[in-house]
Amino acid sequence: MRISGTTKVFGVLGWPVAHSLSPVFQSIAMEKAGEDAVYVPFPCPPERVAEAARGLHAAGVAGLNLTVPHKEAALALAESADSDAREIGAANTWIRTDTGWHAANTDWIGLVRAIRRWDRAGGWDALLFGAGGAARAAAKALAELGARTVWITNRTLTRAEQLVEDAARLWPQTHWSVVPWEAGAVERAAETARWVINATALGLSGEAFPFAVPGEGFAMDLVYRPDGRTPFVEAAERAGRRATDGLWMLVEQGLVSLQRWTGHAVSADEVIAEMQALLGRSGI
């Protein structure tokens, strides 16, 4: 990679962000797109994200992804936003304008594309862990995929209740219901769910996933690890589910962001193939 005076700077803003694989796959994708660009991590604590938004724009950064815990703040801090970000209530992408940041949400598109690689059926039930920005994007994705019923559980019950209320208003074709953050209730919901999605940060630091997820079907963790073995993936596999971490979703959403920034479409299959070789992984 050769850096010049015209090289564009993109990046990911999060806390923590050292674990992020976004710089790895976005560098691959930008090279495939022929972009004179670099993509770097920007660690930023929540209390300084507004300052970072102003400073990175003033410094000429060309575009940003936002990750935990900044996705809801990313919408509030943007000068403008697309309809998906406003509907979801969170953003994972900032697109540079002359005067500020335009917020977009590509997370839900990435999740739709990732799930469709595994499962083309519709009309199933799902269990969703989480009620933050990632979970709100996952809720939209599940509705778009034709989920019949989505059970939502979260450590803070009021946040789950708010997401259920919002989702029922926005996507009334799907039935939404709160599940208490208790083993018995979670396991009963899991038994009815074809898909189980973890949209919390549980496992990001390696802690055990606190629930069993019995039932037949699939599981996807939005958390990812280089080896793919997150605590949620391991819990789902012990229950007999086909399970994957969030690598596919990460790449799919990031390539939509790249296209919004540059106009270039890059094949997810090609990027994933290189990522898998780099990480020593195989399969989905």
Structural features:
284 residues; alpha/beta; Rossmann fold; 6-stranded mixed β-sheet; 6-stranded parallel β-sheet; 11 helices; 12 strands; globular
Structural commentary:
The structure is a single chain. This protein has 284 residues and is of the alpha/beta class. The protein folds into two domains: 8-105 and 249-279, Leucine Dehydrogenase, chain A, domain 1 (Rossmann fold, 3-Layer(aba) Sandwich); 108-245, Rossmann fold (3-Layer(aba) Sandwich). 42% of the residues lie in helices and 19% in strands. It is built from eleven helices and twelve strands. The protein has helices at 22-32, 49-58, 71-77, 83-88, 107-118, 133-144, 157-170, 183-192, 231-238, 247-262, 268-279, and strands at residues 8-14, 37-43, 63-66, 80-81, 93-96, 101-104, 125-129, 149-153, 175-178, 195-198, 218-221, 242-244. A six-stranded mixed sheet has the order 2-1-3-5-6-4, with helices on both faces. The chain has a six-stranded parallel sheet with strand order 9-8-7-10-11-12, sandwiched between helices. It is globular and about 60 Å long.
